[in-house]
Specification:
- With 264 residues, the protein is α/β, with parallel strands linked by helices.
- β3, α5 and β4 form a beta-alpha-beta unit.
- α5 packs parallel to α7.
- The longest helix has 17 residues.
- The chain is globular.
- It comes from Candidatus Afipia apatlaquensis.
């Protein structure tokens, strides 16, 4: 819809309807909803495919379209290694044209846990950035997500550059009982613009972002490399975390170790 809003001429709008966006949806009901939504918005539906994204005919059609941007939010926790989230990500990147940008929203586990697909991805594509997202973004589902950004068809080793990692945890939203996560004080637009600017400029800011050369064996997240901005930590923060630790020890049955003087 945003593409249609940004189009200026009828020729541009017609090009969008006939040549993009291109999408794949396996579930018939979700495909019907997507197609209906596009028709109602006047976006067209000619380039929507119903079926598995791994289907050979669909894959061939998408590659022939020479897409320059890919966006995927693959199914989570399928239990089958052949359907691991990173397998979907690799397939998307393989379908893009050289130099295309691939963006994936996946569980944080994909960034920090070892998996053979990480090496397979970096063999042909470049990891540009990973952003750690708010823990409760998908609440009440417990999955903690992150965004991965790649450049397609350029091996990571050939790019030979640092990847950028952003710590995008505090988005200004709060969780409410009946309305979900809401931007209560209207701070989101300012936070969003700041995040976009720091990403575009690959700014390195203590406590917010870091740049690091990584490979398939490394963790792909800011938390692994970011310097802590101790100036932003207040006494209340320390006390809160200490109380949480003590509560955890008590609830886990481990108890709290007493001071040596008290023990004697």
């Amino acid at each position: 819809h945003q593409m249609m809003k940004s189009a200026v001429t009828d020729k541009q709008r017609e090009k969008i309807k006939t040549e993009g966006p291109i999408g794949v949806e396996q579930l018939p009901n979700m495909f019907a909803l997507a197609a209906s939504n596009m028709i109602l918005r006047g976006d067209g539906k000619a380039n929507l495919h119903q079926g598995s994204c791994f289907d050979e005919a669909i894959t061939k059609a998408i590659k022939n379209d020479k897409c320059d941007v890919g966006l995927i939010n693959p199914p989570y926790s399928q239990g089958d290694e052949n359907l691991h989230e990173l397998v979907f990500v690799k397939h998307m990147l393989d379908c893009l044209k050289k130099g295309g940008v691939g963006i994936a929203i996946v569980p944080m586990n994909c960034a920090i846990a070892p998996h053979k697909s990480k090496a397979e991805i970096l063999k042909n594509h470049t990891l540009e950035a990973v952003m750690s997202l708010p823990d409760e973004l998908f609440a009440p589902v417990g999955t903690i997500p992150c965004i991965m950004v790649f450049t397609a068809k350029t091996p990571h080793s050939i790019s030979n550059k640092k990847s950028w990692f952003g710590y995008w945890k505090k988005d200004g939203f709060i969780r409410t009982k009946h309305r979900g996560r809401i931007d209560a004080d209207g701070s989101w637009p300012k936070i969003r613009d700041r995040w976009v600017e720091t990403f575009r400029n690959r700014e390195v800011i203590p406590g917010e972002s870091v740049a690091r050369k990584v490979n398939a064996n490394d963790e792909w997240c800011a938390e692994a490399y970011m310097e802590t901005d101790y100036s932003s930590i207040a006494r209340e923060d320390f006390e809160r975390e200490l109380k949480k630790y003590v509560a955890f020890k008590i609830l886990s049955g481990e108890g709290v170790v007493a001071d040596e003087d008290e023990a004697s």
